[in-house]
Amino acid sequence: MIKVKNFSEIIEKVKIIDVNITVNELDNSLLSNKVFRVGTNHKPKGKNGWIKSFKNSTNIVIIIGNYENDSTLRFILNYGNSFERYTNRPLAQNFENSNQVNFKQLYSSLKVLNINNHPYFVNKNLDYIYHHDDIRLTRFGQLAIPIYNGISSDICGIQYINVDGTKRFHPQSILKRSVYFVNHESSIQDDSVAIIGEGYATVITAFQALILHNPNINVIAIVAFSANNLINVIDLISTNNILLLVDNDCQSKINVGLNTSQRILSKYKTFKNISLVIPNLPTNESCDINDYYRYYHRISDNGFSKVYQLIMNVMSGQQ
C-alpha cells in the first residue's frame, strides 16, 4: 500500500504501470463505487486500465490496475489515525475479502447459445468455423471467454468481447500464467507444436489455417490474452516447438507486440525452438494474423491459404 497526500501523486506514480488517469476520473471512481475503466499508454482510448476506489470517514483507498501487463498499485490517502473499517482488519483487506469473485459460478450463469452469428465473428470472417461451446454469451450480447488457471480446469477470470470488438476483463480476473485453449480435445505433448498469441481471433485463425491444410498436424492453440503473459505461457507448457503469433503494431510509436516477442526469442533461443510469425500487409498497416487473413480473404478469397503459407515459411526458415 502506497501512502500519498493527494491525487496528483497517484497520477504520477501510476505512470510506472502505463495507466493514464485524470483527477476527474479519480473523482468519478469514488462517486460510482464501481470499477471505473480508463485508458493506458498503449491504448489511450481503450479501457484496459481500471480504478476501484472506496472511502470511509478517515481514509480513501484507491486500487489501480492495467490488464495489459497484469499490474496493480494500491494507494491510501490517510485523513486521520484510523486505518480500520467495521473489523480489526485493514481497510483494503476488507474490500478485497468482501468482493472476491466466484468465477466458476459466474461463468455457469452465462448463456450457452450458437455464437457463430455473433457480430464479432462475422466482422472477423470467423462466423462459419467451429468455436468451442465453452464460449458463452452475456445478457448484454457480449461474448464471454473463460480464462483458465494454467493448464488446469479452474476458471480464474473472464474476457468479454463486445459487438464492436472492444474487450475487457472481469474485475479480479487473473491473467498471469492464465490461458484459453482453442482446441480442448488436444493435450500438450513434448513433440506438439504450440501456437500462442494474444487474442482469440488471432489464435483461432492460425489454428484453422493449419488444420484445413494439414488435418493430422499435432498442434495445440493457446490464447495468452496479453503480450506480457506470453512469456508466462511459454514457461507453462512442456513442448519446445513454439510458433509465436506476433501482433505487428508497426504504425504505433512503440511496436509492443514485436518488441515483446523479440525479447522472448532472445531469452529462450538456446533451449526452445521458438519461431516468430510476423504478418505484414502490403498497405504497411498494423495488423495481427486475423487482419492478415481478412485482407487476403477480401481480395482473393484465399485468406487461410495465405496464413498457412506464412506459417510454413516461418517453420522452414524462409522468413
Report on the architecture of this protein.
The protein has helices at residues 7-13, 23-32, 91-98, 103-108, 119-123, 200-213, 230-236, 256-268, 289-300, 303-315, and strands spanning 2-3, 36-38, 49-55, 59-66, 71-78, 136-137, 143-149, 155-161, 167-169, 178-181, 193-197, 219-223, 241-245, 273-277. Helix 6 crosses helix 9 and helix 6 crosses helix 10. It has 10 helices and 14 strands. The longest helix has 14 residues, at 200-213. It has 3 domains: 2-100, no CATH class; 101-174; 179-319, 3-Layer(aba) Sandwich (Rossmann fold), CATH 3.40.50. Strands 6, 7, 8, 9, 10, 11, 12, 13 and 14 form a 9-stranded mixed β-sheet that branches. A 5-stranded mixed β-sheet has the order 1-5-4-3-2, sandwiched between helices. Helix content is 30%, strand content 22%. Mean pLDDT is 84; it is low at 80-98.
